[in-house]
Amino acid sequence: MHSNNILWIIIRRMRTPFLVIILTFSITIIGLVLIPGVDANGKPYHMNFLDAFYFVSFMASTIGFGEIPYEFTYAQRLWVLFSIYVAVIGWFYAIGTLVALIQDKKLLTELKISKFTKRVASLKEPFVIILGYNHTTKELINKLSQDGKRIVVIDKNQDKVDELELENFIPEVYAISADTTAPDTLRLAGIKKRNCKALITLFDNDFKNTKVALLAKLLNKNINIVVKSTTKEQTEHLRNLGIKNIIDPFLLVANRFGLALSKPNLWILEMLIFGHDLYIRDYEALPKGKYIICGYGRMGKALREALDKANVECAFIDLKSAVHKSKKQSAIFGDAEDYNTLLEAGTKEASAIISATKDDLINLTILLTAKKINPNIYTIARENTIDDITIFNSAKIDRVYILEEIISEHAHKLVSKPLTYRFLQEIYKQSDEWGKNLTNKLKKETNYNPEIFEIRVVKSQAFALTNYLKDGHSVNLGLLARSLEDRTKRSNILFLMVKNRKEEVTLLPDDNYEVKVSDRILVASTYEAKNDFLTLINNYNEFFYVVEGHDYKFGILNKLLKD
Amino acid sequence: MNAQKVISGFFIILAMTLNFGFFYGDIDNFSHHSPYELFVAIVVNFIATILKLGDKTQLGSVLLATSLVADIQLIAAAVVWGISLYVADNGIQDGAQIIVSLSGGALLANFVSVILFMGDTLKSKR
Fold first, then answer.
1. Which end of chain A is more exposed for a tag (fewer CB within 10 A), N or C?
2. Could you report the per-residue pLDDT of A393-444, keeping only the tens digit for each?
3. Which residues from B are below 8 Å from A23, CB to CB?
4. What is the ipTM of this complex?
5. The CATH number of A250-414 is which of 3.40.190.10, 3.30.1330.10, 3.40.47.10, 3.40.50.720?
6. Cα–Cα distances in Å, from A465 out to A455, A457, A461, A499, A543?
7. CB contact under 8 A, B53 and A15
8. Is A123-247 CATH 2.60.120.10?
């Protein structure tokens, strides 16, 4: 439909110029044919249509080959004089319109839309639609691209789209500037396509997110919708719409915080999943004792719930960044009055202080002031945008929670690593004792820096294993954990979770767990063991060596010998 | 009264009548077929074509198609005329039948165009 639009725009604009050219040409041609001339011998003659058309064509385009076929009479010259002005002006008018058309904004937009549509239509792999291009989604695109996911981005702002194009993501990310909350735009981005797997909307504005989520749900009920929501009411709304993947950054931070205080071993596991190693340095562990929270907004409230749950004593300073800025006429915290506020809240004897306002500069200055009062206090900051990371780093803040990063991490796991995400949800339900056992096991098996990865038992990911299972054999997990060098030994591998076809999960399956086709397995292992494991499940020779004790025998001869 | 309808109706019908005027007459006798009439028929056909551009409806597309057919047939007739008169050896008599029958084809297309145009007009309730 859109390539048609381009044609219509051109046709509409070119109608008048075409009419002008036809009229001027026909009038001048008729005149030349009718007016009698004189040939080389002085005999009267009439120009024929071919000569006239030829003459007018080169005259109008100002090429000017001269008077043909014979020199003109004065009557002819008078007519040609008139013709020059009429035809040349008509010609230039048409050319001018055409040139203006090429630069026409509407036409260019249509051209862009048609290019975008073609590219989206040509996507054969599964892809993800991301709405809005900003720090959060940029991080997310980077992560998803590393997993080889194809991405389509819509942003309202053309500048953002240009910025994205300069980034040169691989594989290429298709982007367009259009109204993100319009159903037409979503359709343009391919939401109705079967290989559209997910839609991610992480705007700051909750209403916008809900609107898009609702539209997406109506347009395609099979896709995975990842929505950001920052209030309980909004989350409730979204749940009622049947949307499962809701990211509330404040809740996530608070959970992480509560986990670190009450179930530190589970916290270590969570950190591991998000790319940290198993070794926890002294400064990373949260101290015991009294906490002070500055800022009592959405994040402050969520933190309070987490601290209450963990039975940690805490004090609040109700501070709103906007109010503070208008009252003090500055974005800095730390004059005499502020100093006293901190003192009154008990900064001297507190063991940690959290600054959780919406403004990064205020957050930073709160912590710097607190450090002046109590040099040993543990400082925790909420960082709103990734851009400010260098300032926070150089200010030597003990722990920084970067909201944008947390959002993008979670969205990435939700879309690209569903099993890992599920594992995360499962470990939250466990006790700290369970977490301790698992971390110890992990440390023993895989050292401090295990690789966490997920595979699915299908031909494309586990060729040998899948075929073997399809032949009717049974394989248990213990076999898959054996070493390629010596099948009697175990390699450094640990199976964290298995999800079967019915979506039932088994946490930490034991060696007797029987693997079935299309199971999803979450694995933790050393880098070397990962490579070995992937070779094992894909390569026939290695697989048969480990499972049956000999190399794979194939061919007719082998079959005959067997019989 | 709709001024646009008057103008487009005028050119569409004029295209047909001029076409007919050129076509009518002995197929061999070139004194019955004026080159001026062919020229004007071509020009009016062009104008009719352009007036039909930009109508996105189904009928508009078919109308445009009939005009394009007529244009091509008439241009072909003019080209054959030019070639037989100035390039071929035997003069106009060689191409005479071709020219007239080509314009006959264009006449048919113009006729269809007028019928469609009338149908559209009769259907209109305003």
1. C
2. 888 888 888 888 899 999 999 999 989 999 999 998 899 899 999 999 888 8
3. 47
4. 0.79
5. 3.40.50.720
6. 12, 7, 9, 17, 7
7. yes
8. no
